[in-house]
Amino acid sequence: MSPAGEIWHLTAPDAFLAALYGAHWRVPDPYFDTIVSAANLRHFSWLALCYGYSRLYGEWSKGNTQKALNILSTLRRHKADDPLLAAIEKHLQTIQKNQPPIQKSQPQRVLALGYFDLFHQGHLNYLKYAKQQGDVLVVGVAPDAFGKQSKGYAPVMSEQDRMAILSALSIVDEVHLVGAPMSQTEAAAQWIASLNINAVICGDEWQGSERWNALSQCLAKDNIIVLYAPRTANISTTDLKKHILNLQS
Q1: Are residue 134 and residue 229 in the same domain, yes or no?
Q2: Pair 113, 203 in one domain
Q3: Strand-strand pairing, 109-114 and 199-203
Q4: Phi, psi of 151 (to 5 degrees)
Q5: Are residues 37 and 139 in the same domain?
Q6: Tens digit of pLDDT for each residue in 52-98?
Q7: DSSP 3-state helix, strand, coil percentages of the chain (rounded to 5)?
């Protein structure tokens, strides 16, 4: 239910997407064109044909040769005997052959760290900020054992539950258990570097601390930068725990 009424959704979206766009729908394709490239087009209507020609001309005129060829391949599949499309295809293939190869930039991987116990708005704001700093958001979840060692008690939620919640978030791309406490500078830096991280996003309450000054210097050797995310006011896991205990008393 929502304020606007009922919202319905597919119980098996994976099967629907595979039927719509083929078995490799999970693989990012910068040249994909939602309507023209859909794998399940059984009947190529005049409207789809006009749209396809329009998109082909648009990408061709912008110099997007590969995307124009992808659209053209669909048009050719449905209009195999069209001499104009055959001539355009030959022309675009010649252009592509003479173009220098495009150097693809590597996606920027950013790492967000924390316990994420009793997940709340502050955690979400932190992750949103981290996601904005790169392309791939990797989340490191502190194991239960770290809490027992540093605080004398484990988080309320188990590490498996905390990881499951984070994995379900659309903005999170990868979730890992933290391999070493950040206080163990060398071991922590090695673990972070093993994930091919470009930037670590830390809460601004740690800025200037001895621990993170040492870790920042160590990470810099691997060209990994440390950025500090703004803290969300008036909310924390500690405050939530206190509120829950007050409700019980």
Answers
A1: yes
A2: yes
A3: parallel
A4: -115, -15
A5: no
A6: 889 888 888 888 888 888 888 888 888 889 999 999 999 999 988 88
A7: 50, 10, 40
